[in-house]
Amino acid sequence: MKITSIETHVCHARMRNWIFVKVLTDQPGLYGWGEATLEWHTKGVMGSVEDLAELVVGEDPRRVEHLWQMMHRQHFWHGHGAVRATAIAGIDLALWDILGKVANLPCSQLWGGPVRDYVRTYCHLGGGNMEDFYGTAADDAKRFGELAQAAVEDGYTAFKSMAVPPTMPIEGLKPIRAAEAAVAAMREAVGDDIDIMVDCHARPSPAMGLQFAKALEPYGLYFFEEPCWPESIDGLAMINAAVTTPIATGERVTNLAAFRDLFNARACEICQLDITHCGGLSEARRIAALAEAHRIALAPHNPQGPVSTAASLEFGFSQPSYIICETVHNDVPWRDDIIDDGWTMEKEGRIVRPNQRPGLGIELNEDEIKKHPPEKEVIQRVFYKDGSVGDW
């Protein structure tokens, strides 16, 4: 059995282009689907997939780990950077999909079988630089409260928002009070039985991130995400040690060694590895084992396309430390048109039951993908009041 070619299929999806990777073999009808979506790097990822194809075309697709090592270690440069790690992930997911089809088993069965009966999911309310937010603090708080209530009415028992505005390295009380008002409104709207998460998007400095974390601590957040840059391991560790709220990070960490350093510093309690950015399911399983050794929970970052979601769910059924899966369901109206999957999501509680199909349990409609060709992604810019560059 040999890999004959690797294709990329790109589908526009509002703020990002979904990059799907198809690995074809010389066996009739046997191929696998992966995803390598990386916002604002569509061309770079597609080029990297093309470079990696030189290494794996002609090889046996069932040798998943062997091929992962080739993609990561050959061509001289190790696959640590976001673009290369994402390209590796797209191919790696497709290889696992193929292996599951060969064995006629869901991928979670290849990894020892399901460890739970269902995976809990959560949605994202938005925030950030969305035009609906950052008017007056009172208007923003009201808007967050309304969105929180709508999420619960839609069946979710957990949701996330970007209730923390961009800040300079040091600012006064105004942004702290704005974030506090937004979270207070959400908690008042949904009560104590619903889990609320807040994402800082790694905008604050460690000093500001600590102030936000302490201000929001009374509201019992499920986790507080990226309160400073992920490169600032000491800053994350300082914040994690100073508050009882679990600190989450990892979506921009792209390799096992970096996660090792993060965990050794006890810089988080929630590992948010992104399967499509950290090198795929092969590397994600190693990161998960490391997290398990440190008793750190898994809650993967997953705002991408439907193949990423299928992989995140399949991964969740195999990992004991996995607590919840981020999902997107209303980003573009054609999301469900391009995929046929084996997942069952129950609206009550928004829980997902195990996939019974082989591999990742998915099939993509290439004709539907072609109806939504890639578009230039909108550049997201943040500048502080004095004109200096901020983080989006």
How would you characterize the overall build of this protein?
Helix 6 links the parallel strand 5 and strand 6. The chain folds into two domains: 103 residues, 2-Layer Sandwich (Enolase-like, domain 1); 250 residues, TIM Barrel (Alpha-Beta Barrel). It is of the alpha/beta class and 392 residues long. Strands 4, 5, 6, 7, 8, 9, 10, 11, 13 and 14 form a ten-stranded mixed beta sheet that branches. The protein is globular.
Largest sheet descriptor: 10 strands, mixed
Stated plainly, the CATH topology of the largest domain is called TIM Barrel
The rounded Rg comes to 21 Å
Uncertain segments are: 128-132
CATH architecture identity of the largest domain = Alpha-Beta Barrel
- In total, the number of strands is 15
Instruction: Tell me the name of the CATH class of the largest domain.
Output: Alpha Beta
> Based on helices, strands and strand pairing, what is the structural class?
alpha/beta
Strand residue percentage: 15-25%
Mean pLDDT over the residues: 94
CATH superfamily of the largest domain: Enolase-like C-terminal domain
Count of spatially separate domains = 2
Distance between the termini: 45 Å
Total number of helices: 12
Order of helices and strands: EEEHHHHEHEHEHEHEHEHEHEEEEEH
